[in-house]
Known about the structure:
By secondary structure, the chain is an all-alpha fold. The protein contains nine helices and no strands. The protein is globular, with a radius of gyration of 19 Å. The N and C termini lie far apart (39 Å). Mean pLDDT is 76; it is low at 92-102 and 225-229.
Amino acid sequence: MVDLSLAAFTAAFVLVVLAEMGDKTQFVAMAFAAKYNAYKVLLAVFLGTIANFAIVIAIGQVLITFVPIDAISLAASVSFVAFGIWTVHQEQMKEEKIKLFRFGVIATVGVTFFVAEFGDKTQLATLSLAAAYQSPISVLVGAALAMLVADGIGIVLGIVFCRRIPQRTLKWLSAVIFVVFGLAGVYEVLPNYVGSVYTVLVLAALAAASALLMYLISKRQKPTEAPIVCKTTP
């Protein structure tokens, strides 16, 4: 028999919504929604986060036992920096080719959110709530719906910005968002192991390398002749 708890559901929903407001994944949802179909982004957010939360509730304690949570957070942060660089590299797809990549968009966004939530405060909060209330299903549903609400707000903002900002500017803005949050994640973990001075040096080197790579990539791309439309329609 499934043990459901309204208190656990409510606690998970409220806590995760509050934790996600202004969190990196909300800004990432905004960045994705400015580039891809909003419905697909929302579906990918749901699939990626619910898969992540389900795994952490089921085997969270085992994962933490074998893999330090700081290592997971650091890997997720570096992946954000890499995705920011990749965002600059992306070229505008022709309209007739978009359907071929429909599932590619869902997979890309879903995997990004799946990885991003590892070591994040919402994931740790979900794990703690599941342990405290002993009602994993209620916590999972509450946390997943909370992510939809919080990141849905980010998606709406992404659509609004997309209609007002040129695509080239928006692409760079999205890339910078990814890199900044990636660097912030590295800053949260690295001082515990190498100290503040070396952390600043590592962050400076990583930021400089990211900026140089993005600049070189952008210089090699040919400017698009046709006007670019944001992919936020169904």
